[in-house]
Amino acid sequence: MRLLRFTILLAGTILAGSLALAGHTAHLDSTQDRAAFRRWFTFLAESRYYARKPLREISDGESLIRWAMRNALAPHDRAWSKSLELPVYPAMRSVPNSAAASTDYETAFVSADTSAAQPGDLLLFENSHLPAYVMVYIGSSQNIPSSWRWVIYWASGKVHKVPLDALLDDASSEWRPTPENPDFRGVWRLDILSDID
């Protein structure tokens, strides 16, 4: 499948372009490295929901995703953990340092059906009267275990966490991530997570 590029902008612009942090496109070569990135990326995105103080560098959904990506690729130790106000310091394998220098990301369309989503995938929404919107599908919580499948997103100046099932039953049809909803643009995957081995 050919990579389709988009820019994650929640300030009212259309999804188009690339999610570029700097540098060149990264790719994680092994299943283990991709699993480590998924776990750190989703853990970090969810951790901002539990944080007592907002981070100045996170001011919208795009910056939340950039922050989680950058820190998922960073070397992980206790000093790093304290600097981020993490709710816990997880005993998880880190992503190899070779990937940390690569910070330009593209995405690939996965499906219009959320059953195809894997932790770390993005759910995209767009219509003519609302700003484009992105949510991070985290799957099961790593902070508070439960059987729910969760989604993290930024709105109204803070990070929100909702069960995917609550979105599927949302009273506002434009927020239902279903193929029948013309505002739902589907599930997208960061190219760093593409399975090409």
Helix content: 10-25%
Write out the strand line-up for the largest beta sheet, numbering strands in chain order.
3-8-4-5-6-7
Mean pLDDT: 80
Largest sheet: 6 strands, antiparallel
Low-confidence stretches: 1-24
Description:
The model is unreliable at 1-24 (pLDDT under 50). This protein has one domain (19-193). A 6-stranded antiparallel sheet has the order 3-8-4-5-6-7. It has a two-stranded antiparallel sheet with strand order 1-2. It has helices at 31-50, 61-72, 78-83, 97-100, 164-168; strands at residues 19-22, 103-105, 107-111, 122-125, 133-139, 150-155, 158-163, 184-190. By secondary structure, it is of the alpha+beta class. Helix content is 24%, strand content 21%. A hairpin with a 7-residue loop joins β4 (122-125) and β5.
Which descriptors would you attach to this protein?
197 residues; alpha+beta; two-stranded antiparallel sheet; single chain; 8 strands; globular; disordered N terminus; 24% helix; 21% strand
Summarize the structure.
By secondary structure, this protein is of the alpha+beta class. The chain contains five helices and eight strands; from the N terminus they run βααααββββββαβ.
List the SSEs and their pairings.
Elements (H helix, E strand, L loop, with lengths): L18 E4 L8 H20 L10 H12 L5 H6 L13 H4 L2 E3 L1 E5 L10 E4 L7 E7 L10 E6 L2 E6 H5 L15 E7 L7
Antiparallel strand pairs: 1-2, 3-8, 4-5, 4-8, 5-6, 6-7
Helix pairs in contact: 1-2
